[in-house]
């Protein structure tokens, strides 16, 4: 990196002159990655996550959480860590303290075990009250701290969720539909098929590819399709749910925990991308790749294979045109994609050749009706046809 | 990509088989990753500089020298005298090779048991998620495409333009550790820990040694007091210590040195250049990752050790002390971070040890660095001369000193100078990491007679209740200390 990058409060919307800094996702001294959320601000119209303008070390937060930033005011400085702490003299050296912020600071008293737990849980020890001897922070103090501190994004780069998972008892029509559907069919699938012009999707991938390559990430079409599904689930949240037939409760999820049906030598395995809706495209791509590899090498942990709220299956990877996907209980829907192939389609009355993507979605008819299904499929199809929608 | 460069897929790639790389490979395998480790020397490279030409062989040489040197003193105390034949360095080298080979083989077995595949070749990045593994000139390279990568390529000796290595008269630490004959006269250029360790060992083996150091004291990165103490001791061994001195040239038989008192010529058979090490980051193809090393050749990383979302760097190529245990500790963190488990390399202390005579070891803050960090600093010192166990070893020089926060009694750091300081520092490092109170050390019963009792004693000194040293009783500084 050449010299520090100064980052000023951007103009976030029509006629807004200032914004309140709600929270910093990255602490001073920690690394920020270009385009990953760095700070969350609130204007009187909306809450906005502002991504980092460059990759480097966060050298300064110029407006503290709770402070007001005027448009164009200096918000942060990003640069080389060498600029906050002198790098150690040339190798090999005797004990030099690891690089730390220049401001004199006392390290919170805590054992390595406690410090590691704090990192894993994303808790900043500086804000934890220690109950051990001489104020030492004990592992048990972290539990109390967890409730108080908003889950800081230093560890994950993601802000706290404002909406919680919601459990409601099924009532009225929904309950009677559920009961009757269960009685009628063990697997009450309702399925819809669609073919969508994928020209724009392929163009979007081609446009994004160089930027991804520069970051060392190979972008395939699949993560873009997952983005389309995530968008559609936001529009049709009743598909992002699990149904407990015995308790007759429906759990609608605040986050999207996306199962990816992955073919392995031993059979189909479905690793779950947790909180997929909170991942940027880069993170999503890396996570999909990582989990697929873990599924294929059979090294995925039980936590990585459970807790899904919706499943996507890629028939295209088997070379199939499309298939009839089977819902994984207790989930209530599943989406499948076929292989993109060139087909002759009519455009303005003329036969033209276009890349066409086949889509299929099956929903649990106890929970979702044809109208829900259609709304969901439309949303997926719209996003595939116009990938710009994925930006919103 | 050129046609024919069909890359091979690797889940987690580790580049370099040193204490950073092999530990990272095992840690990643334990986290369920499929790991491939590449080293320029293949399985022979396992253990890296540390096992092959660093920590292990140097300590073997130092141990030999210590025994040779101690014999007359023990003979004077009644042990049978051993005839003063010249030291047989050739058979020492055979034994040292057995030690090195045994450790290298041990690492190989550990990796095999963990399911890590080891490959030979020089790795160079060609794309952000890919690189070429070059084996020999006439074979096309293999291309490896990785999901994650840990770079642990270590460092190599710095060469001085005035003194190019010829492998015979002007050598690096590597050749010095492989000597099969004790040279008559040696000049060691560089008074850091590697130069000091080698110079001391060669002097004890009978060579006529001079140490040339540009800074005003030996061990320039440590407290000057320690440098002076060690200089005094090596001078007793007959070593000529030239500090504030710079090499100005070499005639092929005499090393020319400029000092504050004028020019000096050292007629020496062997010149060992130990002026530091430079990170192996120049031939890695880092541009393909979009990163470049700093002026010192090191790669800037944060606590997560990541260079890019999928590549981490550890060991001698990252900032901080170039030490094997630092490399290994970073290996654990990098493996966790790249496997989706948040983690951070954030130690309170990385202990540093110099196997000089006496041994020197330090962990955490010194008094100076602690007050710079705005602590209210106090120190508590116990002399080695007051240790019963040290007497039985025939040793009396040195001390154990704790640095603590006067206001809270919490231990901030320690320095040990004396026999087995390298082992003694471990307890101090634990105390610093755990934020122990002096009372914690004083309240832990230490076995007798041991050198480790000095921890207990030094803590008592700090608490104003010394037993084995006279000391003005110091009133408890505050209510925190009972
Ligand atoms: C004389 C001496 C004494 C020392 N004594 C001590 C001591 O007492 N205590 C201590 O803690 N430390 C000591 N050190 C330092 C210690 O050896 C290093 O800090 C440590 O080895 C660093 O580990 P590493 O994993 O970073 O790299 P290294 O051990 O340097 O290993 C790097 C490996 O990477 C391979 N490699 C490099 N580039 C490539 C590439 N492009 N492709 C494939 N392979 C590659 C090399 O072949 C090598 O095997 C000593 C060093 C020396 C020289």
Q: What can you see in these coordinates?
A:
- The complex is a heterodimer of chains A (392) and B (482).
- Mean pLDDT of chain A is 79; it is low at 83-105 and 150-157.
- Chain A is built from eight helices and 19 strands.
- Chain A has helices spanning 112-121, 139-148, 153-156, 172-184, 199-214, 221-235, 281-296, 370-385, and strands at 5-8, 18-24, 31-32, 37-42, 47-51, 56-61, 68-70, 74-79, 166-169, 189-197, 241-244, 249-252, 258-264, 267-269, 272-273, 310-314, 333-337, 341-347, 350-364.
- Chain A is globular, with a radius of gyration of 24 Å.
- Chain B is of the alpha/beta class.
- In chain B, 30% of the residues lie in helices and 24% in strands.
- Chain B is built from 13 helices and 23 strands.
- Chain B has helices at 21-30, 48-53, 55-76, 89-113, 173-176, 193-204, 224-236, 324-338, 367-372, 388-392, 421-433, 438-442, 453-462; strands at 8-15, 35-39, 117-120, 122-127, 130-134, 142-151, 155-157, 170-171, 185-189, 208-213, 240-243, 246-250, 254-259, 262-267, 270-273, 277-279, 306-308, 311-313, 352-354, 360-364, 377-383, 399-405, 411-417.
- In chain B, strands 1, 2, 3, 4, 5, 6, 17 and 18 form an eight-stranded mixed sheet that branches. In chain B, strands 8-15-9-10-11 form a five-stranded parallel sheet. In chain B, strands 19-20-23-22-21 form a five-stranded antiparallel sheet.
- In chain B, a hairpin with a 7-residue loop joins β5 (130-134) and β6.
- The site of flavin-adenine dinucleotide (FAD) has 35 residues of chain B, from β2, α2, α3, β4 and α8.
